[in-house]
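S., here's the first fold you wanted:
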Amino acid sequence: MPRLAAASLAGTAIEFYDFFVYGTAAALVLGPLFFPSFSPVAGTLAAFATFAVGFVARPLGSALFGHLGDRRGRRPVLVVSLLLTGASTVAVGCVPAYGSIGVAAPVLLLVLRFLQGLGLGGEWGGAVLLTAEHAPAGRRALWSSFPQVGPALGFVLANGVMLALSAELSEAQFAQWGWRVPFWAAAVPALAGLWLRSSLPESPRFLEIDDHARVPLVEVVRHHGRLVLLAAGALAAGYAVFYAVTTWSLAYATERLGVSRTVMLTCVMGAVVVKGALTPLMALLGDRFGRRPLCLTGCAACALWMLPMVSLLATGEPLLMFLGILGALIGFITMYAVISAYLPELFEARVRCTGAAVGYNLGGVVGGALTPIVATALAAHGGRVPWGVGVYLTGICLLSLGCFALLPETRPVPAPAVEPATRLTSRDGATG
């Protein structure tokens, strides 16, 4: 289990590094370079629109790689998705700016961002299932939480590189070539991740399946459609909160409040580090008290914190901004630490890779794709404190709270010592 967990964590860290480095670049520099005829706000909105394309592609990647995972195994998904995402990320760093090739520049950016999202859409399902299906039932949330640490590590790596370049280079140097370096650097960890994943064993639960679904997506839509939609709605809040504080807040603080890029990146990175460290602890609580109670608690905490968060951000004071972001991410990880166990347990094994991954990534379309765009537009037409952004995020959290309330609990429960036939338990240990 430690070896599997480490490999899954490393892979998700690499792929989310690729995904997050684009979000940071979109917040800081892509607007003027690829949409120079737009106003500053419009340029940022256009850059966030290319950012959103990655989220639109992720459910498509889930369906494509989910089919591969349910038909051929979880392990092939990890290799192919990592190769696609890594190659797309390196290519983004090679795209000339608008001043060199005109409208072809943003078009290429859109295509490569789409391919990034396609690869990441397959990554999560493969990494999570390979870990969750190897894990003992009583510690499934703990072991499967390690892939969820990967996004935090990937974010810190992406923003750490951006922070170092931002601190060492002039504005002109950063805009001319400095922002490209993190994209080029993605080649090294991608190759290391491919080597690491090539030796992983296949999931034992997959090997036990006798009747593989012929077309997993069709079966998921036909028999588990309501479950997928509820999962997507439940996860929307986490996406919205995370990308509000890690992507939109960068643009808002640097453009509207005049906070330096270095200070803002440091605030966000510090909060993400705490979030990553808390992930296994929250997962242990999920093994002890159940998946659904933690999801409901974290979602409710986020709903209550969104208005205080935007007021703290609006102060422009680094410590207060850090506290606002940290409170949001603690609420976020309270629900997301157990998602890697919760979603797979909701679906039967023969369509699990497709069902869990599509539900997870559809939540990204609802919560992650639109949030930076909507938040930027709302903040541009408000006062110094972007109350509209707080209200918008609170609304999404309340929607997700309702969806979590409609989902069942899945924490494995040991069979009773007397009359074992009175309770049905799935082969994976989840009650049914």
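And the second, which I think is the more interesting of the pair:
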Amino acid sequence: MTTEKTEIQDVKQAEKSPVKDKKDVSPVVPVQATEREQLIYIGPNLPGGRLAKYFISLGGFPAYLSDISDKVPAITELFVPVTDLSAAKVAMDQPGTTHNIAYAAVVEAIQKGGI
């Protein structure tokens, strides 16, 4: 009878799902992702290597360029979301658009030595 009892217990134990050790279980920790918008610069290269065309900035307009944005505020219009790059490039080639005017303003400031 002892053998039957042991066999029945073994069968019942086999039917149960395996129990994991507490060491094997990873705690689920919710991660709060802080999304930082990726902006890409579509303007001309700035002298002295301060800013290159297609530079990608995380989290908005770069603070180290605040002196340039004070002189030429239009430069901020040339930082566009990466997802809008294609549309912004098309708009830059059309006279009178915000991007076209901003690009011209930055080029003019560079030529005059303002940047």
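Why I say that: Helices lie at 2-15, 66-71, 85-92, 98-111. The two ends are 95 Å apart (CA to CA).

Talk tomorrow,
H.
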